[in-house]
Amino acid sequence: MDLGITGKWALVCGASKGLGLGCAKALVAEGVNVLMVARGEQALALAAAKLRATYEDITGAKVQFIAQDITSTAGREAVWAQRTDFDILVTNAGGPPTGDFRNFGRDDWIAAVDANMLTPIELIKATVDGMAARGFGRVVNITSSAVKAPIDALALSNGARSGLTGFVAGLARTGLAARGVTLNNLLPGAFDTQRLQAVFQGVAAKTGQTVEVVAAARCNTIPAKRFGTPEEFGAICAFLCSQQAGYITGQNILADGGAFSGTF
């Protein structure tokens, strides 16, 4: 299927690895020019070089990168200094620390809200009007399945990402939809990423079990009996960015292998 987005420009955050990289890869494969942003310059440069080597001659897509902390004002200004007009925005920031909410102070909550709610809002604010003026725009926020089914140890994430979800629900139903701009949230369950492995290691250290036993137990709770891959996550993101997905907006797309057991 031709997604109809060849030649568009995308800003993909957290793009050096994991789900962000999966999204960047899927978009470049569709001929989308991508500006990749992440904090770690070495990993980001390597990821960008691999995408160029794999897809540049095939799709003609440009791959640029800038190593910045997108959650900071300075980081965002550096991105806008490189490019301001984007047709596609994929927001993505690392999840806040896990733990008991009783142990978190005000600074912890402010940091979580700043990274996982306010930063996406700032990025959306800076890009959607330009999208609307051009008659096409796609915003995909990578959030978490915890928005749908909160997890006790993810109190900071549950709160901050739910705030973003409510904001997007309102904004998506304004005049932007009639001008070709859609906003959706993509909610990952358990995907095979470094973050998931870090969670397993934390649980293993706390319980005295091996990482393999912890991972197997988690995998067994998923009807698909496996963890997702960044590549298939990226494919979902690319579809949400397509011309064909123009009638999908204000939605929370859950990708979790069937782990959420609710009807809605």
Automatic annotation (TrEMBL):
What's the protein here called?
Acetoacetyl-CoA reductase
Stretches that traverse the bilayer: none
| Highest taxon, organism lineage | Bacteria
Which family, according to UniProt?
Belongs to the short-chain dehydrogenases/reductases (SDR) family.
SUPFAM superfamilies noted in UniProt: NAD(P)-binding Rossmann-fold domains (SSF51735)
